[in-house]
Design a protein that fits this description.
The structure is a homodimer of 353-residue chains.
Chain A (H helix, E strand, L loop, with lengths): L26 E2 L11 H11 L12 H11 L6 E4 L2 H12 L6 E4 L5 H8 L4 E4 L19 E4 L11 H9 L6 E4 L20 E6 L12 E5 L1 H11 L9 H12 L1 H24 L3 E2 L6 E5 L5 H10 L2 E2 L11 E5 L3 H14 L3
Parallel strand pairs in A: 1-11, 3-4, 5-6, 6-7
Antiparallel strand pairs in A: 2-8, 7-8, 9-10, 10-12
Helix pairs in contact in A: 1-7, 2-7, 3-4, 3-6, 8-10
Chain lengths: 353, 353
Amino acid sequence: MSRFWSKTICGLSPYVPGEQPRVDDLVKLNTNENPYDPSPRVVEAIAQEAAQRLRLYPEPESDSVRRAVCRHHGVSPEQVFVGNGSDEVLAHVFRALLQHEAPILFPDVTYTFYPVFARLYGIAYETVALDAHFNVRVDDYVRPNGGIVLANPNAPTGLALPIAQIERLLQRNRDSVVVVDEAYVDFGAESAVPLVGRYDNLLVVHTLSKARSLAGLRVGFAMGHPELVEGLERVKNSFNSYPLDRLAIVGAVAALEDQDHFERTRQSIMITRTVVTEGLRELGFEVLPSCANFVFARHPQHDARALLRGLREARILVRHFSAPRIEQFLRISIGTDYDAVALLGALRLLVPK
Amino acid sequence: MSRFWSKTICGLSPYVPGEQPRVDDLVKLNTNENPYDPSPRVVEAIAQEAAQRLRLYPEPESDSVRRAVCRHHGVSPEQVFVGNGSDEVLAHVFRALLQHEAPILFPDVTYTFYPVFARLYGIAYETVALDAHFNVRVDDYVRPNGGIVLANPNAPTGLALPIAQIERLLQRNRDSVVVVDEAYVDFGAESAVPLVGRYDNLLVVHTLSKARSLAGLRVGFAMGHPELVEGLERVKNSFNSYPLDRLAIVGAVAALEDQDHFERTRQSIMITRTVVTEGLRELGFEVLPSCANFVFARHPQHDARALLRGLREARILVRHFSAPRIEQFLRISIGTDYDAVALLGALRLLVPK
């Protein structure tokens, strides 16, 4: 606490990202990174751009990324907003589209950055309980609200809503913005992007950090009605004219254009997810059916914190959240098949049958 | 205007950056980019990092950049805050350190992003008139305020305050944060960094966009008392855990470490600035004495807008601001000697003796 801080700073409790260890010989299954390298075209595009134009400012509106998003998702450029990772995009969404009198709504168990954004901008929020099986019940969101934020698939559960449920939510909340955060959608869930042209209150947020293997590059984008995008642009242009550097721009375009690489790597991850899920179940774990690049699992006889420590001793990092309802769960990112063998091997020692 | 926008969005009037043309055969002297490429070490470091680790998240606190800043500026890591360009750093400064009851102060003629940041966060501000020669008079800032923001050298004038004046300002405003934005300091002004250890109310902001030739990479940082840095970290971690991508991090470190390249290129720019200044004066221009990588000049007989158009026809871009007191000035970035010849050649036709 400092007398120089703005008054509201003291009330902020920052988001805590998963540990980024400085040692290399760990099996790192704690931050949902992709185990496969990005498309080689990304690396080439970056090396070329770095050698040529770094002294010049980048495109302020990341137009070439917007065009690549349009080609991939069948939307038009005025329906696309690009930011420095989907967290920055979400932060601008809260400031531009969710700061109203009524509280915004999101699930009690979801991405823990949502309440942090709300507090940053002084936005009231209410959490809506997931059902006993950790599913979102969209009818619970039919009440006065200043906006709704859903991760689909949800994090850290991995559970996904079908598009019909998203559409029902949109229809029953015509006067507020429904933000669907699809960070993990490419690992087996249905995207709401086909609804973007039909609902002016829908905003779908994507990232290149997960399915495109570019956590280290920081690119995210939102797709929605041009009026929503314009609101985001107003905030972005009052904050930072050039949020994406030149390398992120060319890297994002190259990643979005390599459809083969994208398909191959996400299919591999989904196959490994089946191996991990079955292996965990054989060891007695309850594993929620995941549509993401992680699984969320608990063991009826073994404490999650003890398992976390045991895995850490075996040089395997997974993530644990000290939060109501989920404190006995571990969130385990899906890595390579090698990672899966290491994980299941360590757990066989920690959870003897 | 959309019913989905947060109420305060309508009142925002975004910052307008200089034009980033898509054609290549222009002499681009409108956005103060460095005419020289960054250090070759930057390009190497980026190519190497791109080939290795893009699938993994970057360091959340850009620790390696902070350490490089410490080596270069003689500060300690807890005195350094790093962001995605100095505009992002400044945005967080406004939110974290300048949102108080009293209005903040900055000059009537200065970087036009300051009032934009203030409006984004609902911060009241008052502008303080520069004197008749466009100099800051620090005694005019001795009045109740919620903070002071000075660009030094100032933009778009290029005029600099000596460090003794900055120190006087700090001493007479012990209860508010004084932000000194030194984006252009390396082109001949005195830096306030040596005062950082002595004044807990000083925050000095730097960028790699100008003297390090990295406008395309988006790296800025602030140096100040650890309490100020902690306030900034709180906001940053409520906004975006990973503001710098992996390539910006390794590029920034490489740039800060190549002192020879830095010295050589900034000296070249200062020499060319003398050539441009003298050439303009010979043509009858009034040129403010610049400590930046641009000059600010007006001609007593020729309208600035007409000159802007004439230069544009000659495929030379410079910047003009339609603002009180400075509407007859042009801001001309310092490029290579070739750019200087092209500029002065075109002006000889537009401003015949």
